[in-house]
Every structure is written in structure tokens, then in C-alpha cells.
Amino acid sequence: MQDVVIHSDGACHGNPGPGGRAAVLASGQHKRELSGGVAATTNNRMELQAAIEALSALKGPCTVEFHTDSNYLRDGITKWLRGWKRNGWRTAAKQPVKNEDLWRRLDAAVAPHTIKWHWVKGHAGDAGNERCDELATAAIAAVKQKHSREQLAESLREFNASMKAAATVDWLPLG
Q1: What is the DSSP letter of 59?
Q2: Strand pairing of 17-27 and 114-119?
Q3: Where would you tag: which of 25, 31, 57, 109 has the fewest CB atoms within 10 A of its CB?
Q4: Residues carrying an active site annotation
Q5: Which fold has domain 2-168?
Q6: Can you give the residue ranges of every domain in the chain?
Q7: Residue 21, Cβ neighbours under 10 Å: how many?
């Protein structure tokens, strides 16, 4: 299996608000940067999407050293996911798992790989984390430039409504 080092980050101006995500993948002499943004989201959703996109970009099973400044991402994938799945995507408090759609996608994205998850302190000089933060922030700026204030406000209203609706759905366990 190929050895890969991944750094990822998600960012949001307002939470929720316009968001950006980024990942830097490195293997040997090869390096690839991924980034993107959306008009309305949360920081946690951007953290998850950055990880999903990074792992989905790998062409085959890899051994991955994954670096994130998100305890939510690291703890979710290493500590909580197994229990959520066992409990039909419910938390220990019997509440629906927030961002279940993305957790399911991340669960599928990690499956072919052997991953060691590392937490790094954000904005503390880690070169990979700093680069991801730059890319995610630039993605937010691009989203803001592309959309009017009115469009961003409407996107935020739609996002909040969709999150509220998702929280009220009584999810059924699959399989």
C-alpha cells in the first residue's frame, strides 16, 4: 500500500455561514491540494467534507497519516462512529447523529485505507494545517465574491431550514 500524509481543514465565516474546506495530500515527491466552498454550511460539515474529499481522491488502498485540527472529526471517526452505527445512527443520548449524511460518506471513504488519525493544534505553525487554512479561507472568499449578500442570506435561510428538517426526521436503522 502507498503511504500518504493528509492534512485537512474546514472553515466557516459565521457558524453557519459561508464555508470552505481544504486538504493537502503528499506521497513521496507528489503533492496535491484540494479545496472548495459553499454559500451556507457549518465548520463541522466543512471539516467532514475536507476529509471525505481527501480520502476519495486516493486511487487505491493506502496507509494514511491523517492530520486534522478538528477534535470533532478525529473523535467522531475514532471513538463515536462504531457506537452510532450500532445504535442505528443515534447518540448515546438517543438523539439523531448530527451530520449523519457526511459521517456515512466518511465511513465509506475510510474503509479501504489504514488510517492513523492525528490531532494538531490549529493556527500553531503546523505547515500542513496552515496551508489548509489558507486554502479554505481563500475558498470562502471566492464564495463571497461569487454571491451577493442577498444570495448568501437566502442560502443561509435554506441551509438552516434543511438542518432543522433533518434534525426532526426519525431515521430508521439500515440493515
Answers
A1: S
A2: unpaired
A3: 31
A4: 9-10, 47, 69, 123, 133
A5: Nucleotidyltransferase; domain 5 (3.30.420)
A6: 2-168
A7: 31
